[in-house]
Inverse folding.
């Protein structure tokens, strides 16, 4: 990952004012912000891989097949990161909604 992405995530975690960074990571909003940074990073990497493939496709020939394979693999890895971070993001929201729904249910039943 790029240093900028790492520093953005570190700033989000550090801005919570906890004594240790991992204490801030248990807060759902912090998790959302950090995952949003990583999903954005993965999306931009995918866009970059498509642009690289579009601008360098004329360079691929039988002799430089490795370049073509590299471009395809770069796109596949970027999509894999998008999927992985998106799945984590969706599961986190499902858990948050279950927690909130359970809390509302407890209040209504009380």
């Amino acid at each position: 990952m790029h240093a900028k992405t790492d520093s953005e995530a570190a700033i989000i975690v550090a801005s919570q004012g906890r004594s240790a960074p991992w204490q801030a990571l248990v807060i759902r909003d912090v998790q959302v912000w950090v995952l949003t940074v990583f999903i954005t990073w993965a999306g931009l990497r995918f866009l970059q891989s498509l642009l690289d493939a579009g601008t360098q496709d004329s360079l691929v020939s039988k002799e430089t097949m490795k370049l073509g394979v590299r471009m395809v693999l770069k796109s596949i890895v970027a999509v894999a990161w998008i999927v992985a971070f998106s799945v984590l993001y969706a599961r986190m929201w499902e858990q948050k909604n279950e927690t909130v729904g359970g809390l509302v249910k407890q209040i209504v039943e009380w």
Notes: Residues 3-109 form one domain.
